[in-house]
Amino acid sequence: MTLWVFGYGSLLWNPGFEVAQTRRARLTGYHRSFCMRSVHHRGTAEDPGLVLALDAQPGASCDGLALAAQDDETEAVLAYLRERELVSSAYLERLVELETPDGALTALAYVIDPDHVQYAAHLTLEEQAQIIARAVGGRGPNTEYLWNTASHLAELGIPDAELQWLSERVRALAA
Fold first, then answer.
1. What is the mean pLDDT of the chain?
2. CATH number 3.10.490.10 is the correct assignment for the domain at 4-174
3. Exposure of 124 in the CB half-sphere (CA atoms within 13 A)
4. Which residues on neighbouring strands pair with residue 21, listed in sequence order?
5. How far apart (Å, rounded) are the C-alpha atoms in residues 42 and 35?
6. Half-sphere exposure of 108 (CA within 13 A, CB side)
7. How far is residue 127's CA from residue 78's CA, in Å, rounded to a whole number?
8. What does DSSP assign to residue 55?
9. Alpha-carbon torsion (46, 44, 128, 28), positive or negative
10. Rounded to two decimals, what is the model's pTM?
11. Annotated Gene Ontology MF terms (predicted)?
């Protein structure tokens, strides 16, 4: 059975595994949001950054990519993703139903735990921009994460008004 993974943030531009197949995909009931404080990859415990997470919201949807792992790499990909995404307990690993042009499929997704201390859905876009403009973590500047994700979404033809606004605002702050 093929392991499908839903990419909506950094998995779009840095999956970290060999992708056998991609499909445009939509996840309903969640939206893409900078609602997770990053204390490892894009910030520190002393100065957290922000990363994207899937935040449950009735009536919402998130467009991204369904990424298929090579069939003989399923266990290795799963181990890699768990090490990468579950570095703290802020993400919850879930099987979700995606809509694709080729029909529905079940995929692995990492969604935010709204009860976790790293959950930060209350921040305004301006507050998000101020944090992203200055934070740096083990995988580099928070700005890089934002700009790579925004540019890949644009290349894929997936509009995201919030990420576009944040990208422009953070560029102005960084100038």
1. 95
2. yes
3. 4
4. 68
5. 13
6. 22
7. 34
8. E
9. negative
10. 0.92
11. glutathione specific gamma-glutamylcyclotransferase activity
User: What token pair was written down for 106?
Assistant: 């079940």
Q: Please report which helix (H) or strand (E) contains residue 60, including its range.
A: strand 49-69
Concatenated DSSP letters of 92-108: EEEEEEEB-TT--EEEE
Q: Based on the residue annotation, tell me whether 18 is a catalytic residue of this protein.
A: no
Q: Give the pLDDT confidence of 46-105 residue by residue, as tens digits.
A: 999 999 999 999 999 999 999 999 999 999 999 999 998 888 889 999 999 999 999 999
CB contact at 8 A, 138 and 49: no
Distance of CA 91 to the CA centre of its chain: 10
H-helix or E-strand spanning residue 135 = none
Phi and psi of 51, rounded to 5°?
A: -130, 165
d(CA 119, CA 100): 29
Q: Which of 85, 126, 127, 155 is catalytic?
A: 85
Asked if residues 67 and 19 have their Cβ atoms less than 8 Å apart, the reply is: yes
Give the contacts of 58 (CB within 8 A, at least 6 positions apart): 29
- The SS3 assignment for 59 reads strand
| 3-17 burial code (b ≥16 CB/10 A, e <16) | bbbbbbbbbbeebeb
Strand partners, 160: none
Q: Which two tokens stand for residue 32?
A: 């893409």
Cβ distance 109 to 92 under 8 Å?
no
Asked if residues 52 and 9 have their Cβ atoms less than 8 Å apart, the reply is: yes
